[in-house]
């Protein structure tokens, strides 16, 4: 990753915070768009490894992501700059709403606007998972781990179990094959 | 104990005991804010969650700001927000160091190559949660129990398809897709 100034980090993450609705995984979509596709600061692989770790660590995924990406780019100061950038727009907007605009949220027009925007978030996430899936090889271990992740969440288990299940699949089913130099199961992405 | 310190410690505790962020935090928020501390009533809590989802930024962070502000003004909002971020800062930076140090370790690589497709599944599940009550007429996980009453909201599906088309073109910024979808929502979903 190129050296990025703390001010740039702050500005980029405030833009990300401003365009993210609904927490961790929708933020991941925006983050991937900004850092992987638009600026090429991270590879898909680096991005997904950070996202996995941010999910496995306690706390809000979005905040963890900001801290980790900021730290990778610029150490402790970068981590603080990225996190401050992520939170500033939402804190300002929320304070404004808490103070002045709460009644407007009950208007049907505003509610259906937000519902439409929510559908766009779903579509954005769907598109991002499709482009990521294209980078993964189709072998049964990958399909199995992906199905586990999806299934565990749909039956209502916590996301951390999906990460743990994936880690177990990796450790138990892919470990031995990875140590063989002629087998490139780990060369995804 | 001053109210600000109390808010700081409360949100630090919530952050420390929630994995997976956002929606996973909500039950814990409810327990701490409504049941244990009585900061909010059930109805106020439901409004707060809706508001936190509708405004930009992480859900947990929005909730901390909102509750902090309602309890103790700007200082309270700052205390709640900082409380939520403190454990994350320490643990996320430690995790980033850990990943960097063990990046080339074969076991670590095996674990991560299993986690990657699992996270893909996790993200795909997020699509379903976002589309749940707007594209489908009932939450998808109730598909079998809802039976005949389970249907597709066609205007919702149309908005979904239009957004995908805008993404496929690769030229339209995400913020515009949100605004277009919102405007369509205001027209079609009212």
TrEMBL record, chain B:
Record GO cellular component, one term: plasma membrane
Membrane topology according to the record: Multi-pass membrane protein
Presence of keyword Oxidoreductase: no
Keywords linked to the UniProt accession: Cell membrane, Membrane, Transmembrane, Transmembrane helix
Record-linked InterPro entries: CHR_Transporter, Chromate_transpt
Signal peptide: none
Protein's cellular compartments: Cell membrane
One Gene Ontology term of the molecular function aspect: chromate transmembrane transporter activity
Transmembrane segments: 7-26, 74-99, 111-131, 143-165, 172-189
Family (UniProt): Belongs to the chromate ion transporter (CHR) (TC 2.A.51) family.
PANTHER family: CHROMATE TRANSPORT PROTEIN-RELATED, CHROMATE TRANSPORTER
Listed name of the protein: Chromate transporter
Organism of provenance: Oligosphaera ethanolica
